[in-house]
From TrEMBL, chain A:
This is ER lumen protein-retaining receptor. GO terms for cellular component: endoplasmic reticulum membrane. It is a multi-pass membrane protein. It is found in: Endoplasmic reticulum membrane. Belongs to the ERD2 family. Keywords: Endoplasmic reticulum, ER-Golgi transport, Membrane, Protein transport, Receptor, Transmembrane, Transmembrane helix, Transport. Its main location: endoplasmic reticulum. The chain crosses the membrane at residues 55-77, 98-115, 153-174, 180-202. One of its GO terms (biological process) is protein retention in ER lumen. GO terms for molecular function: ER retention sequence binding. InterPro entries: ER_ret_rcpt.
Length: 215, 10
């Protein structure tokens, strides 16, 4: 494992910890899209079916279990916790996420490494992860004001994707057998979706001002 | 075959 991949995993972990901290400390999930969180839970559940079939390392197994457990915990809190669920911006979280599910599934049926149950679901999880942030970005844009922890959450999530691209560039030169086109192309699309957010994030950081997205 | 390499990324 190279440094970019490791830092990518760590920023991913940090983003989830920030989200858990926000929900735990403020008992609020305002600004957070339940649709995006549900899509992420589904991404992890479909991708990590290999927990039952392949053992890669203790690190790998532990991280997979952490991602599954934390995503399910977040969804549970947003749906069921008596205080947290009241702060959910349901009227702003209106992205038609079923289209993302359908499109990802159809694409996975067409484009996969092998036509097998686990492989098609793996491709599905990759495609779905690439677009799962869209309901979240739309919610932020609609609410305009982004609270500090929510802004940091999305920033670290974007940083994780950017670091994975550096990881692939590194692997491409070091390990010529590494050719995961589905993951790499989807990863590029996914990272591009953050470009607009990053732009406004850095402007607010430079001006030392609160993060605001244009309507 | 390359597709049999386990998927080591998260």
């Amino acid at each position: 494992m190279n440094i970019f991949r490791f830092l990518g995993d760590m920023t991913h972990l940090i983003s989830i910890l920030i989200l858990l901290l926000k929900i735990y400390a403020t008992k609020s999930c305002s600004g957070i899209s339940l649709k995006t969180q549900e899509l992420y839970a589904l991404v992890f559940l479909t991708r990590y079916l290999d927990l039952f079939t392949d053992f890669i390392s203790v690190y790998n197994t532990v991280m997979k279990l952490v991602f599954i457990a934390s995503s399910l915990a977040i969804v549970w809190c947003m749906r069921n916790h008596p205080l947290v669920r009241r702060s959910y911006d349901k009227q702003l979280d209106t992205f038609r996420h079923y289209f993302l599910l359908l499109a990802s599934f159809l694409l996975a049926l067409l484009l996969h490494e092998k036509f097998a149950f686990q492989e098609v679901l793996w491709a599905f999880s990759i495609y779905l992860e690439a677009v799962a942030i869209l309901p979240q970005l739309v919610l932020l844009q609609r609410s305009g004001n982004v609270d500090n922890l929510t802004g940091q959450y999305v920033f670290f999530l974007g940083a994780y994707r950017a670091l994975y691209i550096f990881n692939w560039i590194y692997r491409y030169f070091i390990d010529p057998h590494f050719t995961r086109w589905i993951a790499c192309v989807s990863g590029l699309v996914q990272t591009a979706l953050y470009a607009d957010f990053f732009y406004y994030y850095f402007i607010s950081w430079k001006n030392n001002a609160k993060l605001q997205l244009p309507a | 075959a390359k597709e049999d390499v386990p998927k080591d990324e998260l």
